[in-house]
Amino acid sequence: MSNTTPLETERTDGRDDPDAVRATTVGESEETIRPAWRQYDFEGDPKMSVRNLDVHYGDDHALKDISMEIPEESVTALIGPSGCGKSTFLRCLNRMNDRIRAADVDGEVTYDGEDIYQGGVNLVELRKRVGMVFQAPNPFPKSIRENVSYGPRKHGEVRTGFFDRLTGRDDREQRDRIVEESLRKAALWDEVNDRLDENALSLSGGQQQRLCIARCLAVDPEVILMDEPASALDPIATAKIEDLIEELSEEYTVVVVTHNMQQAARISDQTAVFLTGGELVEYGDTDRIFENPNSDRVEDYITGKFG
Length: 307
Known about the structure:
Blueprint: E1 7-11, E2 21-25, E3 30-33, E4 46-57, E5 60-71, E6 75-79, H1 86-92, E7 103-111, E8 114-115, H2 123-129, E9 130-133, H3 144-154, H4 162-167, H5 172-185, H6 189-192, H7 205-217, E10 223-227, H8 235-248, E11 253-257, H9 261-267, E12 270-275, E13 279-285, H10 286-291, H11 296-302
Parallel strand pairs: 6-11, 6-12, 9-10, 10-11
Antiparallel strand pairs: 1-2, 2-3, 4-5, 4-7, 7-8, 12-13
């Protein structure tokens, strides 16, 4: 990518794109540059939308004026160097940053058109619909069956009334249906169907991570957030997780943080590039981002010149 002359920018009059910036190259004619979130067009309404998001941890400005739209039933990868705000951004999508006392979040995040930061939002219901899978597998020290059925029990999808407890029936048929369906979707059923009452900690690392994905699926989310879900796994287990992510995107909206650019290129439909300072520098179709980025900074990062 050729070097460009520094640009002088000012707002346009907003007739075509109110968020666009008019850029004048010294000695050349004026052109309009679209901001990162406007560089990616897709059909239909976004599943989630972020506008003017800022996050501070005390004096640390972790995310700066982030805006982007996340298409439904697709994989969106978030890439960038360590400390650029990828995981902070991910946690904003289901308000997990609320658990961090120093975090101050400002801006708008909508899910199916509803602002999740407005007053009165039921956070339990939000995190059921926008589930999260963490970097390190974290199964409960319980049986495989209990790990998967825990969420539906907590949310009341498996009945645990007095009569069920008295008889010991506990609506086993309903529970077992949810367990099997979730494990099948997580591509784990064939490996554990005869071991459901074994402790989940007896599983391999890759199996534990797929169990955590099954646990997330058991409460019927629509969006699945994944924070480096394969970083602690060997190549074989990583390949299974990547295949699973691609399969899940046929039914769910998946947002994945990854440090592995090759992984992002393999599994995602669109990629957002965050760089040091909490900026979203570029967002668009994954093939274009990796083959022909608009930003010299993004090209330098992808080609390994920094990061």
